[in-house]
Amino acid sequence: MAYDRSNIFARILRGEIPCKKVYEDAFALAFHDINPQAPVHVLVLPKGEYVSWADFSANAPDTLIAGYVRAIGKVARELGLEAPGYRILSNAGEDGQQTVAHLHVHLFGGRKLGAMLVKH
Ligand code: 5GP
User: Fold this and answer.
1) Which protein residues are within 6 Å of ligand 1, measured from CB?
2) For position 93, which CATH number holds?
């Protein structure tokens, strides 16, 4: 899937739409999810035009991959989630129900998070 520069996270990264920022460096931006599913629900995005983990892992430069992964760890630490624990989740494609086509991870914490998947 080609990257669409009009997606909502691209617009947030360009500063066209505001966000509640938690962290930013040369590789990543983190901000609070607009519709939180846990007391802490933060999204961490790489700075680059990548739709998904498949796209990012295949096409991003090593420096960006390393910087992004380090940023995710830093955000979790800075939010105080390291000791109590937290969950990282990334939805991909239709089955994963990814709704925004710019790679992101969700970082959840602040309560016991329950089972990993809802049973259907
Ligand atoms: P996905 O469904 O792609 O895994 O996650 C997209 C997430 O982005 C959802 O949890 C949704 O609440 C969040 N989201 C969508 N639009 C906005 C927005 O404009 N601002 C913020 N902060 N979060 C958004």
Assistant:
1) 8, 17, 19, 31-35, 43, 91, 97-100
2) 3.30.428.10
Which member of 32, 41, 104, 106 is catalytic? 104
Domain limits at 66? 8-109
The verdict on residue 58 lying in a domain is yes
Count of structural domains, the chain: 1
CB contact at 8 A, 65 and 106: no
pLDDT, tens only, 57-113: 999 999 999 999 999 999 999 999 999 999 999 999 999 999 999 999 999 999 999
In terms of pTM, does the model score above 0.85? yes
**Ligand 1: centre distance to CA 43 (Å):** 8
Computed over its alpha carbons, how large is the radius of gyration of the chain? 14
Is 33 part of a structural domain of the chain?
yes
Q: How far apart are CA 10 and CA 12, in angstroms?
A: 5
102 annotated active-site: no
